[in-house]
Amino acid sequence: MRLITIALTALLLLIQYPLWLGKGGWLRVADFEAQVNAAHKKNAELIARNAKLNSEVMDLKDGTGAVEERARYELSMIKQNEIFIQIVGKGQATPPPPLAPRPEPR
To answer: Rounded CA gap, 57 and 19, in Å?
Structure first.
């Protein structure tokens, strides 16, 4: 009777091995699900980034508003007859002064 119990326990363990550690085991499936979730998250981030870049490209192609905004914020350019005022908080470095306005073409 004792031998039958040991044999059945051994068979039960042999049956459980592929279920947990085999090719299609639960541990591997859980790992693959985590990888799929990470890929979906990365894809969602890339889709949002592409949509933002696409809208920026459309703005640059269609109008001058986006070009003017970039010139103001990235290049610190100002229009003629405009006054540039910048408030710098404590501990912030002072950025370089804005570029001088270009004369209008005649």
So the answer is: 52
Distances (CA, A) of 40 to 3, 16, 51: 52, 32, 16
Token pair in block for residue 71: 């010139």
CA angle, 86 as apex, 81 and 92 as ends, to 5°? 160
Write the DSSP string, the chain.
-HHHHHHHHHHHHHHHHHHHHSTT-HHHHHHHHHHHHHHHHHHHHHHHHHHHHHHHHHHHHH-SHHHHHHHHHHS----TT--------TTPPPPPPPPPPPPPP-
The rounded distance, in Å, linking the Cα atoms of 35 and 41 is: 10
Give the model confidence (pLDDT) of 68-90 as tens digits.
Answer: 877 777 887 887 888 777 777 78
Amino acid at 97: P
Six token digits for residue 8: 């059945």
34-64 pLDDT tens trace: 999 999 999 999 999 999 999 888 877 887 7
